[in-house]
Task: inverse folding
């Protein structure tokens, strides 16, 4: 697992590689001051794609890449 490791055009919050399954996970977390958690999730997913955060995972031969956009506001999370 890598946290804030540089990949693509910047840094994702969390990258996980499961070598035996050739599966990986990219997680981007956003804090939404306005409480619009759905919007925050979409922004996080867009950032993963726009910044190519999964580039290193593809280079490492990961066949399956799961992308998660997480949004939070105080104690609320989506």
Result:
């Amino acid at each position: 697992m890598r946290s804030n490791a540089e990949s693509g055009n910047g840094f994702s919050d969390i990258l996980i590689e499961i070598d035996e399954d050739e599966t990986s996970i990219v997680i981007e977390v956003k804090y939404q001051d306005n409480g619009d958690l759905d919007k925050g999730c979409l922004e996080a997913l867009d950032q993963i794609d726009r910044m190519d955060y999964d580039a290193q995972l593809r280079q490492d031969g990961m066949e399956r890449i799961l992308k998660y956009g997480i949004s939070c506001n105080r104690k609320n999370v989506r």
In short: The first strand starts at residue 2 and ends at 3. The helical segments are 37-50, 55-59. Residues 29 and 70 are 5 Å apart (CA to CA). Strands lie at 2-3, 6-7, 10-11, 14-18, 23-31, 64-73, 76-77.
